[in-house]
Known about the structure:
With 225 residues, this protein is an alpha/beta fold. It has one domain (2-224): Aldolase class I (TIM Barrel), CATH 3.20.20.70. It has helices at 15-25, 36-50, 66-79, 92-102, 123-138, 148-158, 185-191, 200-203, 208-224; strands spanning 6-9, 31-34, 55-62, 83-87, 109-113, 143-145, 163-166, 195-198. An 8-stranded parallel barrel has the order 1-2-3-4-5-6-7-8, surrounded by 6 helices. The chain is globular, with a radius of gyration of 16 Å.
Amino acid sequence: MMKDKIMVALDVPTATQALQLRDQLxxxxxxxxxxxxxxxxxxxxxIRELAQHHRIFLDLKFHDIPNTVHQAVESAGAxxxxxxxVHASGGEAMLRAASEAAAAFPDMRLIAVTVLTxxxxxxxxxxxxxxxxxxxxDCGLDGVVCSAQEVAAIKAQQxxxxxxxxxxxxxxxxxxxxxxxxxxxxxxxxxxxxYMVIGRPIIQAKDPAAAADEAVAMMSEAxxx
Length: 225
Ligand code: C5P
């Protein structure tokens, strides 16, 4: 179902605001993404509560020495999240350590950030992303975070089972804000992305559920044409 491809970034400061959004989004999207702001403020207790109705992507982008990242991935697995990520730029030893830790949690997907979607594109960036994706796959991770603009090339290189998670989703007259490599929900789904991360276009909308439904409708229409 298209709604299961949407991960809403709960970039809010308090559990109260997060739970209010969660309540509005039950049945409208499959995933909630908890990033640095909310996790630093509210921690694991909130994750357990959010996991009652949605799958959870813990987006903390680990980037440290291999042993520390191994331990952090283990803690994410013990917490029961459905997806966690590291930075591909942490290098091969770090990626392998993360992958070894994740192997103990077969239901948790481990992905790596290639180049942030706030960085503008170009041939050099594209090349860097494809090289990072090859290393990430070789180290045994499940996929990458990239922009929709790179999904087709990554799938061609690594196969369709290699996951792509794409932030930088905007549509209509929405402002780019700090994002650079953007795509609409329709474009992202046409490119073959597995999951799209949507933050401000949903959480700052007057009616977050209606904004999510609008994204789902655009995705469904794109699949029919
Ligand atoms: O509000 P917006 O839709 O731009 O939110 C995008 C979300 O995706 C943010 O939570 C941001 O941290 C996250 N993200 C990103 N680019 C990446 C990885 C994660 O924008 N490469």
